[in-house]
Amino acid sequence: MSRIPCRARTTGTRAIVAGVIMGLATALLGLGLGPAEAAATDARSQRAAVRSSQAQVASQVDALEGSQAEVSTALAALEENVRGQEAAVSDARRQADASSAEAREAEIAAEATNKELAALRAKVAKYAVAAYLDPPGEELLRRFEAVSAQEDETRRALIEMQSGSDADAIDQLRTTRQRLEEQQKRAENAKAEAEAHVAEAEQALTSLSAAKNQQAAFATQVRLRLDERLSEAMYLSKLDAAFGAQMAAEAAALADSVSRVPVTPVTPGDSSTGGSTGGSSGGTTPPVTTPGGSVSRPPLTTVGGITVNSRIADSLSGLLSAASSAGFRLGGYGYRDINAQIQLRRQNCGTSEYAIWQMPADSCSPPTARPGFSMHEQGLAVDFQSNGSFINTRSNPAFAWLAANAGRFGFTNLPSEPWHWSNPG
Question: Which of 1, 140, 266, 281 has the most CB atoms less than 10 A away?
């Protein structure tokens, strides 16, 4: 085999050596990041979905006509949904902040590693120039010229040729590049996680707003129920102490439950609250006050010992007569003076117009019904007794008769109160 002239061999060797070093450096410095792994667990969403479903069922309970247990359970489910959504918002925001902090930490570390890498790259480039200007000896040149020489052999020959510090610099370059890739990947993953948690927090915030609106709407209806129940309990306790005490205890428990829900003020007669229905909450028109500050009475008529608004007197008379023919001696109580309730509100709630007319019953101490929300105050409702006792169960024979016949005379029942029947006139 012919010998290559020494100068030609030297020049060729310089090119090979420099090429090998620069090729290795280029390979070590090349960029290439994998896709960020998608963050997330759906455990929180599953729990939120269960709470939301339970709250949806709870919101369908009739707060005016449902049983005490149904209404209390519904309030608890709605409260749990709101608290769960608040926790979801807080948790998502906390995780978003943590992921953002991790991303920034990784970016700072990557910046420092990049500077370190630039210094190593310059160092390796310097070795490449030195190898070009000061080629290896004759024996190593033969190895580069051998037809069967492989790239790994060339690199190994280069490393053997260079001093220990040269080899260390290349090893440092490789490990530093790996560290940079890990830091960059960590930063990208943390950014993706932060973005996912921010989106999760925004969704949770939307769900929280919906949950609060749902809870507030139900609480408004419960407060209307309280206005009737508290008024009934106070009045009936004068006529039947045990019965009134039972009603008062139930109303107090309900007031305690709903007091945790922020107040949405309701004006007497506001049809959006259900106050104009023929059930417990009347208030079809705002009360008319006299120059002295009291509310004028409606025209009243007493029928069979029950005082009612004159416009339903004939209907009540017909109902009592029909009941008597069927063997039921019905009595009861109808009109209640709204001014007595106004005075009680001043005593327990405050003297402002808001305190008297709008402040929810559960905001007073003790809880006190708002005036203007009971059809008794308009003389359009009757609490019936049969044989001297209030009809306090739906199994009472008198209730069964009323359920079958009262409608003929324009009277409807409030299901949660078997004794309470109203007629809008």
Answer: 281
Q: What is the pLDDT of residues 72-97, one digit of tens each?
A: 999 999 999 999 989 989 988 998 99
C-beta atoms surrounding 35 within 10 Å: 9
User: For residues 116 and 121, what is the distance between their CA atoms, to the nearest angstrom?
Assistant: 9
Q: Average pLDDT by consecutive 10-residue portion of the chain (425 residues)?
A: 39 41 40 37 70 86 86 91 90 90 90 85 73 57 50 53 61 84 89 89 89 92 89 84 87 91 59 36 43 75 96 97 96 92 94 92 93 91 93 94 97 91 92
What tokens does 157 get?
């020959």
Q: If we measure between CA atoms, which residue out of 370, 184, 340 comes closest to residue 273?
A: 370
SS3 358: coil
Q: Which residues contact 245 (CB under 8 A, 6 or more apart)?
A: 237
Report how far residue 272's alpha carbon sits from residue 264's, in angstroms, rounded to the nearest whole number: 12
Question: What is the distance between the alpha carbons of residues 387 and 293, in angstroms, rounded to a whole number?
Answer: 39
Nearest partner of 21 among 11, 10, 29, 9, judged by Cα: 29
Output the CA–CA distances (angstroms, integers) from residue 398 to 302, 330, 332, 414, 419, in the order listed. Answer: 21, 8, 13, 15, 10
275-293 burial string, b = 16+ CB within 10 Å, else e?
bbbbbbbbbbeebeeeeee
Q: Which CATH class is domain 295-336+374-425?
A: alpha beta
For the segment 105-127, what is each residue's pLDDT rounded down to a tens digit? 988 988 988 888 888 888 777 76
pTM: 0.65
Element (H, E) at 222: helix 164-236
Q: Give the distance from CA 287 to its chain's centroid.
A: 38
Q: Is the dihedral of CA 183, 185, 188, 192 positive or negative?
A: negative
Residues 356-381: pLDDT tens digits? 999 999 999 999 999 988 899 999 99
Where along the chain do its domains lie?
6-223, 295-336+374-425
- State phi, psi for 350 to the nearest 5 degrees: 135, 170
CA angle in degrees (0–180, nearest 5) for 375-352-271: 35
